[in-house]
Amino acid sequence: MSVVTLIPAFKPQFFEELLLALRAQTCPPERIILSDDSADGTFIHKLQNGSLDEISEGLTIETLPGPRRGQYANFQQLVSVLPEGTEFFHILCDDDLIQPAFYERHLAAHASREVTCSFSRRRVIAENGESIDSDHFPDAIARSGQDLHHVGTATLFRSILPLMNNWLGEFSNTVFRAAASRFFADPRMAGYRALRAV
Q1: What does pTM read for this prediction?
Q2: What percent of the chain has a predicted confidence (pLDDT) above 90?
Q3: Which residues have a Cβ under 8 Å from the Cβ of 61 and sit 6 or more positions away?
Q4: Among the listed residues 166, 21, 187, the one whose alpha carbon sits nearest the alpha carbon of residue 93
Q5: What are the pLDDT digits (tens) for 117-153?
Q6: What are the residues facing 64 on neighbouring strands?
Q7: pLDDT by residue (tens digit) across 57-83?
Q8: What is the pLDDT of residue 196?
Q9: pLDDT tens digits, one per residue of 5-33
Q10: pLDDT score of 155
Q11: Dihedral angle computed from the Cα positions of residues 185, 191, 195 and 198, in that order, rounded to the nearest 10 degrees
């Protein structure tokens, strides 16, 4: 089992830390595809001029210019270039960092059951370094004491939509099975089109 990491790059200030987090993975990504959506190609330039060679050592990174039509268009472009044979993909936003066992734990979750995606708890850190509790898990999950849950579509709808409580977090804490890539071309759930920022 392996993961392809997709980086919709726009904000360069955290790029070095992001690469270090990927290098620290106990189960490294098979490859990284970065779509540079910055106005001046900052990410591609940094990777090509050698200034990040030491930090990116051991990582297989491919780059392409971003579409410059907003974040979701950048997501869609990345998903559309997934290499044939990809098993799992992860959209890692450029201002998010992942723990060293992130891919190892997600692949273990996928191995335990055939699911479309796995997600892990999101940890939000303030600029002063303090952890902010941003997750409001449904009571049944919060009280269970288990590390791994299988949640169906009906439970997701009931626990998110009526309460306006996105306890799932963001793309960066989700690993998708490759078959889920089709949802990015037409982001609807049960006939409802997802709202997205432009």
Answers
A1: 0.83
A2: 53
A3: 31, 32, 33, 34, 47
A4: 21
A5: 888 776 666 666 666 665 577 777 777 666 666 666 7
A6: 35
A7: 999 999 999 999 988 899 999 999 999
A8: 44
A9: 999 999 999 999 999 999 999 999 999 99
A10: 72
A11: 30
Count CA atoms within 13 Å of residue 89 on its CB side: 25
Q: Are 67 and 77 in contact (CB under 8 A)?
A: yes
Q: Residue 30 corresponds to which tokens in the numbers above? A: 């098979």
Which tokens hold the place of 102? 């992130």
Q: Which amino acid is at 60?
A: T
CA atoms within 13 A on the CB side of 83: 15
**Helix residue ranges per DSSP H, the chain:** 15-23, 42-48, 71-80, 102-112, 139-142, 153-160, 182-185
Backbone angles phi, psi at 161, to 5 degrees: -65, -55
Angle at 12 between CA 10 and CA 15, to 5 degrees: 110
Beta strands in the chain (DSSP E): 3-9, 31-36, 61-65, 88-91, 117-119, 124-125, 131-132, 174-177, 188-189, 192-193
